[in-house]
Amino acid sequence: MKRSVYGKFKIRHFKNLVSARVRKRIAGRKDDRILEMPKHFSNYKGMNAMKKMSIREFATEVGVTPDTVRRWERKGKITPVRTSGGHRRYSEKDIKQIKKGPEKRNIIYCRVSNSTQSEDLKRQVEAMELFALGRGIEAEIITEVGGGMDLSRPKLMEVIYAIIGNEVDSVMVAHKDRLARFGFALIENIAENYGCEIVSASVESLSPQHEVVTDFMSVINDFSHRLDGLNKIRNSKSLVDELAEV
Length: 246
Hints:
Elements: H1 5-27, H2 55-62, H3 66-74, E1 81-82, E2 88-89, H4 92-100, E3 105-112, H5 118-134, E4 140-145, H6 154-164, E5 168-173, H7 176-179, H8 184-193, E6 197-200, H9 209-245
Parallel strand pairs: 3-4, 3-5, 5-6
Antiparallel strand pairs: 1-2
């Protein structure tokens, strides 16, 4: 059954009237109270900027899971607004805050080989504080007692993990061997890959020469143990061969 022209006019007029009432209601609200917009208003100027995202939409935007977003909230990294029903809502400002990330750290790393070198460590720290000050950098100081051949030192690993976590802008050392006797280039390449600069003051006086002897002795001991192990293997093999001939 076909509608009359008058009937069509009434339906069209009713739709326009409802749309006008909705627009008037939205215009009377405060911007921070508008949580969702009707689809037919999405093209109006400024409407998209006011849209709030659900936790799932926000997580997708920043490339994480909703659980991660909730964990950020517990740690105070982000504070969403809540609807009257208690649901989280996020804005473009929240996205920018997360993508900007925290301010990176600058680290001064100082090391000596044993506990009897406490004075050497103190001088190293004082010299590196002046070095950082001269560069106009405020840095936290990490000190460690351990051999330069040991790349699994706890404090060194702490620095490397912080670098990989994109938390460090620069690491300053008195000399390359303070970071590692061998393997400095490897650590430097890892740091460069994560946007961190390794800065060596290249102060030879802050790299005690007797430590070189200690480090080389540790290398010799390591190889001697390996040779002893090989000799034991050879002797065991000879014994097996002799028993086989009997």
